[in-house]
Amino acid sequence: MSAMATSAPRPASSRQIASPMPRLPPVTTARVSCRSIPHFVPGDWHKSTVGAYGTGRRTERRPGAPRNLKSGGRSEDWSVTRPQGSGGGTQYRPITMSHDGGRTETSVDRIMAEGRASGSDRRSVVQGNVAAATLVADIVETTLGPRGRDKVVYRKPEKEEEGLDDYFQVTNSGAYILKNVPFEAPAASMVARVAAAQDDRHGDGTTTATVYAGRILAAAGDLIERGFHPRTVIDGIDGAVPLIDDAIDVAAVPVDDGDRDRVADVVHTTLGGTVAEPLADRLVAWIHDAAADGSLDPETVHAESLRAGSLSDSEFVDGLVLKKSFAGNYQPSSLTDATIAMTTQAVTASQQVGGRVESDAGADAGKTQSLQVSATDAADLQRFTEYERGVIAERVQPLVDAGVDVLLAANRVDEDTVAHLDRHGIAVVRNADEARLRALAAATDGTLLPHLGAFEASDAGTVGGITRREYPEVEQEAIFLRNLPGNLASVLLHGSTWMAGWEAKRNVNAAVAAAASALETGQIVPGGGATEMAIAGHLRDAAPGVGGRESMVIEAIADAVEAVPRLLARNAGMDPTDAILDLRTAHSRGEKDASVLGLKRELGHALDAGVVEPAAFKRGSVYTAAGAATTVLRIDDVITGIDVTVSESP
């Protein structure tokens, strides 16, 4: 029996159909440029219900139909549309798409007055964001641990006097990298900013937080590809955070006020493998003296770097060190029982001549006012000069009456004012760091004034001794303020290059922050990935009790957290797979501090080896990573090209 020949119905279109063209392939690359994150172009997502083609209709591909036909400069997919729940005939309608730089234009774009949106292709937005955020973790993960590698970060010179070697920085600081690399992809930029905030809050732990976020998002991307809804993944992440908190509590070891050994372990762990490691013992002894009462405020400890000598020449000072010189001709080499005045505002003749502007508090706000003077002859100019000098004398007279020896300003002080203060034996330090002046004011019972017009004798601070020291080999000076009434300490780090001193300064600040955190919270946790292994084990044990798809998310997060010991082993030159298997076995036997000892390139017990971290750092990294991951996963659309004008409210 011969088969009857049937003709396929013709498409309902009057366009001339051109020859078939191949479909644009989906993006499958594992690494995505941080400057341009292409969207994934799914191959068959148009099979789902699409409202643009009529409510209640299901769209599917006609068997044997070409995948892409070109007509009128647009790519078209011919598909079959059947009304659901009816036995009606089959109609063929075109699904129009145009591709621009890896994204798909949809009907959403055509209803917007300006800009473009990703429209119905929302799963590609999620996957693109995940790829971008994962790239951020890829950048910094090789810096993790004492055997981590360095990065070269190019930057613009901040000051004209910086040398050619200052156009780039060699560092393994995750915070510095994330704050200075210009990510253009919104998701990458968000993760970088959120992770860098870990450094602002805790002083360290940025790389760990970034690795957590990147690996959690990578696991989330895999789950979404398997059909999980992003909201389900977010709920699973939110449910995992308290479980991780519980695991950290179990792993934590108490630190008593007098437990000097554990504080020393924290400092040695932080400085291990860094350029400042040779200073660890001296820094520990210095911190013990500074924290004699069992507490340490990081705001009262300041590190300064000097491009002179070697690291072994570094100085630990009981007081404040300013890498500044005195302005003007009055250059005292030392002062005893000195009285100081401090201000944040510029002290200039032009601002003083501009008039006294009363603030809400009734004091002189000293606002700068542009002033143009026209002199017809030398006598007019002389009268103006005398008037200007009179205004300067009136402004600084309260300093003279109070017996001030040194004026420290966080801004500029003009030459006329400096010369007037010189004649009264008042030394001037200008353009000092405002944060250091704020700490100095607290330690000297003084007041950091917003302007000198509000100065009173009670605002002055007292310093037991001030010393000026010259470093002729590098043409620099430093001013030492010692014997202060309050707590204030400094480290002057010497280095043969600017970069070496800067990196040592960053390391010392991180060690001080870690010691302060351990003393404040009274808790430390085993380092070397031991805490991550404990967290992963706890999550796997708790996941079955959660139930539903959230339990699978929690198990995926357990695998993601194990990335830290895996990276520590890899960066130390060990086999990461063998290391993870051995650590799982050790933890299953109850060895809760089994870890990767990176400096020794072996597995061991973190507490016995003195490899510990502040518990607050670990908690902060978890909270930061979870917040960054859920923020990225909540995004399902990207709208670009809109000109947004921000205007102030009347």
UniProtKB/TrEMBL annotation:
GO function terms (MF aspect): ATP binding; ATP hydrolysis activity; ATP-dependent protein folding chaperone; unfolded protein binding
In its keyword annotation, does this UniProt entry include Transmembrane helix? no
> Is S-adenosyl-L-methionine a UniProt keyword of this protein?
no
Q: What does the UniProt keyword field contain?
A: ATP-binding, Chaperone, Nucleotide-binding
Where is the stretch described as Disordered?
Answer: 1-26, 45-105
Checking PROSITE patterns in the record gives: TCP1_1 (PS00750)
Concerning its family, UniProt says:
Belongs to the TCP-1 chaperonin family.
The name this protein carries in UniProt is Thermosome subunit
Write down the species.
Answer: Haloplanus salinus
